[in-house]
Amino acid sequence: MDTLKGALDLFKTQPLSTRLSLAGLLLIVLAVFTPSLQSDLVYDSATEIVQWNFIHEPGQILTPLTFQLMGLDVLDFNRPVAVTFLMFESMLWGKNPVGYHLTNIILHGLIVCLVFLLIRRFLSFGSGPCYSTRRDVIAFLVTLIFAIHPLVTEPVCEPSYCKDLLAALFGLTALMLAIRHDPGAKKGDVLRMFLCPLLCLLAIGSKEVGVAFPAILFLYWLIFRRTEPGRFWAWTLAGSFGVVIVFLIARFALAHNPSVIFVDPPHYPGDSLSAALVVEPRILAVYLINIFWPAYLCADYNGYSVKFLPLPFAMLILVPVILGLGWWSMKDRRILFGAGFIALCLLPTSNLVPIYHPMADRYLYLPLIGIVLLAGLALDRVWMIAKLSHMVAVSLLVLLLCAALITITLQREKVWSTGLALWRDTLERNPASLAGRTDYPEALLLAGRLTEARYQSEMTLRTPYVNIPLVWLDYALELNRLGDRAGAEQAARRALALKPDLVDTAKMIQTLQYRADIATEFAQLAASLPRQAP
Predict the structure, then answer these.
(1) Taking a C-beta distance cutoff of 8 angstroms, is the pair 496, 526 a contact?
(2) Residue 394, C-beta contacts closer than 8 angstroms, at least 6 positions apart
(3) All domains in the chain, ordered by first residue
(4) Helix orientation angle between 212-220 and 189-206, rounded to the nearest 10 degrees
(5) How far is Cα 425 from Cα 428, in angstroms, rounded to an integer?
(6) Measured on CA atoms in the order 341, 346, 347, 348, is the torsion positive or negative?
(7) Taking 60 as the threshold, does the pLDDT of residue 8 lie above it?
(8) Structure confidence by residue, pLDDT tens digits, 78-111
(9) Is 267 helix (H, G, I), strand (E, B) or coil?
């Protein structure tokens, strides 16, 4: 209660323009993302929330809460904070999609408020005269871009990606606490020295990208506060780096190998670090395109997604941006921090170590904060702040841009509303998507659209994914439901030849390899197969 009262008191002391900006941003977030409350649980949520019974067992809550989860061979063993959060959500919502979507919207709204306060803080020590209200307007406009950008649709509208939101919330809170440190006032220092490392631990315990925040704190100290007395910063930085290093050691030391959950290990794009280093600039160039022209976002990227962009063209995009930021950073140290923030948030997903998805829209949630910070700093100029007409003109242009972005965001919300919509869109944008090729036929099968499901499975069987057991499993069920018993038996035998333990329904369900209803139906089909003569 004291913490809540303190937060309310702090809010009341803010200028009216600040309070109105925060309230306006929250209302816009609610308005834009309210349609997602009607969405299903799709993609990873279908596995983590619907199929994974662990999070629906309240008696197990101490396992992730005390980080014992890291020693178990379970889904998200390396994200105990996120699993704890999902378990608390389960106590509230069960398996009702509405509650999980509402929680993600609230988390995003809180992060948007933190982003506004962070940008406002950086604008407050700019080189020009400090016009508080007009700087609130700048912070509002650029934060609005972040709040409704189509790239945030994936982490906001896919409830299991609350991991990304939690990491951002905890990490940004740690940064804001450190920024508010006043070397002239000792009050609150001990609490901050405790909370900043704790929040960094919670950030990395939510998702691996949280590893960036101790480095971000260090960067902030190095650029802005290194001339201050060192006690607070020494303890804060040492504690933040320390808890993250200990977490990483535990994560790799306790991981099960081999695992029955993570059967196939992650691999580099191109299957080697050298190949990944060649691909990564192309991925970064696509990210840059998606930030400024988010018309071709996709739920599942792979090599097909970057093949239109050869390495020389990618470098033509990236090199001027990097050189421009370097030149700008020499003129304004705030730009150096913004650029560093982006780089540090991109680093954990830059394929320097193997990860399961080499690129994803959700990987840009945190870097996008750095982008809008740079946008705010670009507008923090005397010509912009001193003249009302300039402020009005720029505000109108940004609002028009936001209106266009909201249109795309609402379209992406519809894409993420059902499995059918998601995988149809994915295949349209990336015909080589493994997830699209396997999950779209299954979504059609579950919807009872059997002829379409069979057609999509047959299309997949003409691709390099012909030896994926799930493809033959779904194809067998489609043919069986359509009355083609001979074809169903042939497809079932092919699936079993590729993966003999498909008939072990309990194992398939326990290891989350297949949906319970699909695994059970296939086991029944397999049990009815006529024995072949030896």
Answers:
(1) yes
(2) 141, 379, 384
(3) 17-415 (no CATH), 433-527 (1.25.40.10)
(4) 140
(5) 5
(6) positive
(7) no
(8) 999 999 999 999 999 999 999 999 999 999 999 9
(9) strand
